[in-house]
Each structure stands twice: as C-alpha cells, then as structure tokens.
C-alpha cells in the first residue's frame, strides 16, 4: 500500500499512472468523489443541505458550486467529508481485496487528504510528489482555470506542503519526462517491497 502526497496541482494522478504501468491498482479518490456526486441519493442529500443551486442541469451535483461552499466554510467541508469518506472507504477496501486476489505488486492511494483523513496509517509507505509551486500554479491555471488565490484557498484546507513532505517516506520528481517518472516509480516500488520482505523475514 503506497500513498501519494503533494501540493495541489502536483500531478499525483500522473504519478499514480506510472505505478499503474508497473501493475499496481490505483484507488483514485477524486474519481471516486465524482462518481459519488452523480449518485441520486447523494445529490438529494446535498440538495437538502444547500438547495437547488448545487445541482447541475444534468442532475449530478455541481462540483464548482459545492467547492464554493465547502472551501469557504470548514464546518460545511467537514460535513461533506463525513458523508463521502465512508463511501470512499468501502470502495477502497473492495479494491484492496481485489489486489490481494490478483496478486498485484501494490495498491496506490491517490487521495488529496491522505494525511488529513488518516489514510497514511493504512500505507506501507508514502511518496511525496515534488513539483515547484510556480509549476503547480501554471498547471491549475491552464487545466482548471484557477488563479493564485484559488490555489491558496484550496491548499489552506490541507496541511502545509512542507509538512506533507516531512511526513513522507520517499520523494518523486513530477517535473520530468515520462521515462524518468517511470524509472523513479519502479525504484520506489522495489524499495517498498524489499522493505516489507525484510520485515517479514525478520
């Protein structure tokens, strides 16, 4: 079990795909949240909390409207997390069971709130995805239309980037090319698996 940590816009999903190419299964919390926010029962709960303004024309929850609420109010963010996190946990546990059945080399936990949600305790190692802040800002500006203020607002809802780095076991540079990223992922996966073998042998 390998968790990924890093600042907003660091490209944890890109790193997760590098591990996926090595045969790992990926638990993607962002994708899981998108699926949950399209479920009728979840949409109706959110409508009961915040009104029709959080429902998109297609009937799914409007992620932008929800973000405007939860990233401006810690209490509302915690209420949303209390609703979604148990559902995400069930999906993650099913993936871990599948990984055990199939004998894959590892499960990658790609979750924005890895430390905040205590998911690091479930991991054998945590990998910090290292990318300069100016690169992360450029990525979220082009990919998500966020300015520096929005990036700062999103990061304020998480523990500081340097704290994530300090609490991680490995680092991977995600400002390089795909070949270098794959090589780094292969090296880290081998180190983590070797460490687990050493523990079991001891």
Q: What's the alpha carbon Rg, rounded to whole Å?
A: 18 Å
How many helix segments?
9
- Ends apart, CA distance between termini: 20 Å
- N-to-C order of helices and strands: EHEHHHHEEHHHEH
Give the strand order of the largest sheet, numbering strands 1, 2, ... along the chain: 2-3-1-4-5
Please, what is the average pLDDT?
A: 90
Residue windows where pLDDT falls under 50 for at least 5 positions: none
Can you walk through the features of this model?
The chain is built from nine helices and five strands. The chain has 202 residues and is α/β, with parallel strands linked by helices. Strands 2-3-1-4-5 form a five-stranded parallel β-sheet, sandwiched between helices. Helix 2 crosses helix 5 (74-102). The longest helix is centred in the middle third of the chain and has 29 residues, at 74-102. The chain is globular. The two termini are 20 Å apart.
Task: Summarize it.
This protein has helices spanning 12-20, 29-36, 40-50, 63-70, 74-102, 133-144, 148-156, 161-166, 178-201; strands at 2-6, 25-28, 107-110, 125-130, 170-173. By secondary structure, it is an alpha/beta fold.
Please describe the structure with a list of short key phrases separated by commas or semicolons.
single chain; 202 residues; alpha/beta; 9 helices; globular
What's the helix and strand layout?
Layout: E1 2-6, H1 12-20, E2 25-28, H2 29-36, H3 40-50, H4 63-70, H5 74-102, E3 107-110, E4 125-130, H6 133-144, H7 148-156, H8 161-166, E5 170-173, H9 178-201
Parallel strand pairs: 1-3, 1-4, 2-3, 4-5
């Amino acid at each position: 079990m390998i968790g990924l940590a890093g600042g907003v816009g660091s490209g944890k999903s890109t790193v997760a795909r590098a591990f996926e190419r090595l045969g790992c299964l990926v638990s993607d919390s962002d994708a899981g949240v998108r699926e949950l926010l399209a479920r009728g029962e979840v949409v109706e709960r959110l409508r009961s909390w915040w009104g029709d303004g959080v429902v998109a024309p297609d009937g799914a929850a409007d992620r932008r409207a929800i973000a405007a609420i939860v990233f401006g109010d810690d209490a509302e963010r915690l209420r949303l997390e209390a609703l979604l996190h148990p559902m995400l946990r069930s999906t993650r546990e099913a993936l871990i069971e599948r990984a055990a059945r199939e004998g894959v080399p590892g499960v990658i936990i790609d979750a924005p709130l890895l430390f905040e949600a205590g998911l690091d305790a479930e991991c054998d190692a945590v990998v910090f995805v290292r990318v300069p802040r100016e690169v992360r800002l450029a990525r979220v500006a082009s990919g998500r239309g966020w300015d520096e203020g929005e990036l700062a607002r999103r990061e304020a809802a998480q523990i500081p980037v340097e704290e994530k780095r300090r609490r991680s076991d490995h680092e991977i540079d995600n400002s390089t090319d795909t070949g270098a990223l794959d090589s780094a992922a292969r090296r880290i996966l081998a180190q983590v698996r070797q460490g687990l073998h050493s523990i079991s042998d001891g």
